[in-house]
Amino acid sequence: MSVLRQPPSSTRYVPRLLPLTLMNPPMVAKHTPCTMHLSILPPELACKLFYTMLDLSQSWKRNKWWLFDRVVESPHRTSFYARKTDGVESDNSWQEAAQYWYNGRQTDPPNVFPDVMEEACLYVENMVNKEMQMRPRLPLEWAGRGSEGQIWRANVAASNCYEGTKDSVGFHSDHLTYLGPYPTIASLSLGTTRIFRLREVVPSEEMHSRRAQTFNIPLPHNSLIIMHASTQEKFKHSIPPQSTLDLYRPLFPHHARLEHPLEPSNCRINITFRFYRPDFRPQSIPRCNCGVPTILRPDMKNRHDGQTDKYWWTCHAGAQNEGKGCSFWQVMDMKAEGRGPTISGVGCNER
Ligand SMILES: O=C(O)CCC(=O)C(=O)O
Ligand SMILES: [Fe+2]
Question: From the alpha carbon of 158, which atom of ligand 1 is closest?
Fold first, then answer.
């Protein structure tokens, strides 16, 4: 009698990797395309910015959008700021960019950076430029004109407030609609320490040979995470809910309430400083069959490390239109769409 045996499995067993906590800047740089910078601002400025944004956050909103057949709400409050000294085209551009941040909702014109945020932004820009000079640049990164493109600057910022243990943001990579391919995003943390979680999206062709690892990075008050070029293409990030929290104990009194006792806080303020590229200005974004600006996403599962990477324009109308979008889908073509200049065009060391 012959014994029936299962045919040998063609898929190799690939062991799961345990999550790893990255406790310090060298560990972050070793395992991810990000760098971490502690005590990035002078302590008093960091505290003043925390108080300023915490006060402002009282009027920030939870983002709302349609997911399939129901409205979902972001589990944290958010707001969008444009830098008044920067001219990315007209005020209408900023309006559209802000509406995009709120998933296509009608919004008032975006706020401009408060003075204290403007001051902090200069420290952030210095650090980003120092780091960028030490890294290889990727072909589709913005190269600007003259010296402009070789110096990173922020022209918008998105701000988030996470109150208590439950506020969070789920795994995502940031849409590239106005950032273009390979953006550099600088993310400042103020207030209570929260965990920033990163997980690589393993390309399809490697799925049978390796698994993604989850990295947990505790982000203390006054720390900066720079998500360097390729982070959005390769990794997803999140701020998970936590079961416990260490309260933030400010070292300085509130600048407008000097006589008040120092109050511990259970809030984290996050400011992501971003550069909206002139070659991805709102007027240049393709519209889908619904007549709504599309969103730009990288093909994370089939990536080729800066060489032949693909990006898609897809319909985003469903986020607001009761979940009803169209099937619009178009490969982004830098040349045909007249975008650039990019690093591949001007070369890395041109100034
Ligand atoms: O709060 C953070 O550190 C992350 C925020 C974030 O991912 C975003 O605003 O896109
Ligand atoms: Fe994000």
Answer: 9
Residue 349: per-residue pLDDT = 41
* Max CA pair span of the chain: 91
Domain ranges, ordered by start, for the chain: 20-279, 286-346
Which pair of tokens denotes residue 190?
């103020």
**Per-residue confidence (pLDDT) for residue 89, from 0 to 100:** 47
Ligand 1 neighbour 169 (Cβ under 6 A): yes
Q: Are 220 and 183 a contacting pair, CB within 8 Å?
A: no
Calculate how far, in angstroms, residue 196's C-alpha sits from the geometric centre of ligand 1: 9
pLDDT digits (tens, 9 = 90+) for 73-120: 888 999 999 887 555 445 566 667 776 666 666 667 788 899 999 999
Tell me how far apart the alpha carbons of residues 194 and 214 are, in angstroms, rounded to a whole number: 16
CB 140 within 8 A of CB 339: no
CA atoms within 13 A on the CB side of 55: 11
Is it true that domain 20-279 has CATH number 2.60.120.590? yes
Residue-level pLDDT at 144? 82
